[in-house]
Amino acid sequence: MTTPTASTPAAPRMTGLDWVYLITLSALWGGSFFFVKVAVTAVPPLTLVLLRVALAALALHAVLRIAGLRIPPGRRAWLDYAGMGILNNVIPFALIFYGQAAIGIGLAAVINGLTPFWTALIARATGTERLSAAKLAGVAIGFGGLAVMVGPAAMAGLDASLVAQLAIVGATISYGCSGVFGRRFRAQPPLVTATGQLTASSAMMLPLALLVDRPWTLGLPGGEVIAAVAALALVSTALAYILFFRVLASAGATNVSLVTLLVPVSAMLLGVLVLGETVTDRQLLGLALIAAGLAFIDGRLLARLRPAPG
């Protein structure tokens, strides 16, 4: 493990386009809650994960061919894709499924918001990125906003199994590692990286789904479920991972991990627009805190507000 020094590169600053991509990514992943809610009524969790990554991989292979790109050949390339698939799909998905069997969705969302912390710490510990105090303060403020948004009612799950909670924490650590590990792909087109990762994830999920869910024993799902699975794979996975690796290559691991703070905001807004849900004062306060945290992390607004020297 590399010890950070003064020569450790600072975390890249987010550009305006990076913020557009990040907000779009949060909407795509926030929308996945709607698709999963429909699909999971008829498809077991591991089979749903397999369908999500496999259909997305097939779609991206088709796009890859149209774009005239290809996945780099060789054992080393596929080992890297497998490593990214394990850290970004297989481990966190399995741990989250296990943890949510015992704790509430609200508590799981709060714990999942730890991802930027782990990403920052791992990036710092490995010498990948040098983090300013303002950026770390921004992550803390954003996490506080996430906790406020979820609210005390969701915290009723705090008496749930400690093992289940630790499983979700383990998922966030895995996500944090994937953000740092994924920096090795920054020279590749995002489409190539996303296709390679999802292909490797599909190969690893196939035996797990066959062994645990025995999907051949399931009945044929209805049209609504099929549409939800397709949207989950093509919109919330294939397109989303193209954006994920685009921001990762441009803005770094810590910045791209901020999407975990934005996803609950996107889910709340989708609930208002699609389901007609109302927004409480607590949720608005949480949204304001998250916005403040993002301002600290971005740094440009604070730089404009800072008095000029002399």
What does this structure look like?
With 310 residues, the protein is mainly alpha-helical. The protein has one domain (16-300). The protein contains 13 helices and no strands. The N and C termini lie far apart (42 Å). Mean pLDDT is 79; it is low at 1-8.
Round the mean pLDDT to the nearest integer and report it.
79
- Derived from helix and strand composition plus strand pairing, the structural class reads mainly alpha
Give Rg in angstroms. Answer: 19 Å
H/E element string?
HHHHHHHHHHHHH
Low-pLDDT stretches: 1-8
Basic shape? globular
In angstroms, what separates the terminal alpha carbons? 42 Å
Proportion in helices: over 70%
Domain tally: 1
Sheet with the most strands? none
Summed up, the helix count is 13
Percent of sequence in beta strands: under 5%
Let me know the number of strands: 0
Features:
single chain, 310 residues, mainly alpha, globular
Give a short synopsis of this structure.
The protein is mainly α. It is built from 13 helices and no strands. The chain has one domain.
